[in-house]
Structure formats: C-alpha cells, structure tokens
C-alpha cells in the first residue's frame, strides 16, 4: 500500500457520497483499490470511501461485517454504507503509522503498533468471533502459542496513531479472523522494514514486541512470514 503519486480519477460513487465536499485520494493498494478522503484532506477527513475493482469487490464485502462486529470491542471505523466494490466509513481520529510524521520517529510508531495489536488481541473475544481464520493462514498451522482474533493484515499502515504518538485504532480489517497471535506479530514486525529506516539487524521489531509484551518467537515468525508470502 502506498500514497498516490499521480492523478486519480474520482469514481461516480465517491462523488455521489461526497455531495460537493472535498475529495482526495489518500491510499492505493496492490489490488488497484483506492481510498478517498472526504472532507478537508487526509489528516482532517470526516469520512472515507474505499473502492476496489470488480474482481476484488468481495474483499470489501467481507470487511463490512468484520468492522461492525469488531467495533463493539475496539476502535475501528464505523460503517456508513457499502455496495458492490465500495465501502463508506466514518473517519477515526489519528493518522496512519506510516504518515511522514512518523518516518523519522519509527521507534514511536513501532511502539504504537505493538501496543495496538496487544489491545486488539486482548479486546476481541475468540469465543464470540463469527469468522474463521484469516484467508492466508494455513488450516494445518502449528498449535497456537495464544489463539486470538487477529487483524489479518497487521502491516504498519493499518495502525492509526494520535499526534502524541499513541495508538488510536485499526483500519482494513477485511481478513480479520481467529489464529495464533504470531500470525499478526510476524507480519507487523516484517512490515517495519518496508516502511521505516532500519536500526540494526532486527530494525524496530524488538521495540514492537516489547510494547506488545513478548520476546521474539523466531520459528513462529518465520512460519507465518512464509505463509504470508
């Protein structure tokens, strides 16, 4: 996922939802999906509309019930509307952990990501979760260290932070499901090297894991990174 680098056409559904308000493309994913801020810009948007191409529309459909369920327990966007290939949500306070504000303060971002994942894993009740495992987690995965409701795509951009550097919430929960907590932690730590300058052979992974409250389980991390790839 990246920030847009060129002009992006505003789809009709986004223009309709905006109803004359400002619209700004703020995020592009590897599937060709685009997230648009509605309001006064990325940092002060009041709503977002995520649009996916037809061949990936099912991913947004899967996110709707997951957001509605998770919102009962933790900070995730409120669903305002949805349809084939689009999802309209209210904005959460905060900025993505890969906002330029945090690129030179990766230790702060890593700490917020770790704190946020621990909060998510503690808050979402496994026994009440109506969803299966994340789509990329193998059915024959090893016996879990701790079974939790995983984010499913715990890359750094999907954590939001307040301006004082604390965890604010999560976005992009379309693959939320029950799995070993290391399914999230493996991907979260791996994604740090994609988004921040490294600091030694482990980058900021140790900071993230310390904030979460665990030491690295290298075997589980390697397993889930292979499964993700």
From TrEMBL:
<keyword id="KW-0547">Nucleotide-binding</keyword>
<dbReference type="Pfam" id="PF01636">
    <property type="entry name" value="APH"/>
</dbReference>
<dbReference type="InterPro" id="IPR024165">
    <property type="entry name" value="Kan/Strep_kinase"/>
</dbReference>
<comment type="similarity">
    <text>Belongs to the aminoglycoside phosphotransferase family.</text>
</comment>
<feature type="domain" description="Aminoglycoside phosphotransferase">
    <location>
        <begin position="136"/>
        <end position="223"/>
    </location>
</feature>
<keyword id="KW-0046">Antibiotic resistance</keyword>
<dbReference type="InterPro" id="IPR011009">
    <property type="entry name" value="Kinase-like_dom_sf"/>
</dbReference>
<keyword id="KW-0808">Transferase</keyword>
<keyword id="KW-0418">Kinase</keyword>
<keyword id="KW-0067">ATP-binding</keyword>
<protein>
    <submittedName>
        <fullName>Phosphotransferase</fullName>
    </submittedName>
</protein>
<dbReference type="InterPro" id="IPR002575">
    <property type="entry name" value="Aminoglycoside_PTrfase"/>
</dbReference>
């Amino acid at each position: 996922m990246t920030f847009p680098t060129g002009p992006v056409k505003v789809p009709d559904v986004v223009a309709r939802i905006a109803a004359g308000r400002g619209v700004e493309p703020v995020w592009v994913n590897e599937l060709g999906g685009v997230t648009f801020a509605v309001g006064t810009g990325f940092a002060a948007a009041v709503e977002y509309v995520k649009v996916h191409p037809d061949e990936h529309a099912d991913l947004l459909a899967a996110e709707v019930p997951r957001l509605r369920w998770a919102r009962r327990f933790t900070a995730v966007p409120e669903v305002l509307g949805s349809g084939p290939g689009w999802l309209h949500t209210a904005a959460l306070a905060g900025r993505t952990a890969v906002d330029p504000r945090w690129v030179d303060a990766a230790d702060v971002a890593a700490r917020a990501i770790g704190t946020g994942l621990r909060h998510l894993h503690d808050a979402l009740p496994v026994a009440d979760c109506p969803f299966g495992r994340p789509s990329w987690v193998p059915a024959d995965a090893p016996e879990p260290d701790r079974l939790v409701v995983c984010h499913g795509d715990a890359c750094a951009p999907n954590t939001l932070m307040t301006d004082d550097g604390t965890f604010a919430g999560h976005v992009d929960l379309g693959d939320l499901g029950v799995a070993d907590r290391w399914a999230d932690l493996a991907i979260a730590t791996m994604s740090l090297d994609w988004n921040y300058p490294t600091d030694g052979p482990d980058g900021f992974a140790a900071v993230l894991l310390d904030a979460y409250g665990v030491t690295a389980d290298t075997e589980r991390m390697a397993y889930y990174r292979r499964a993700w790839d």
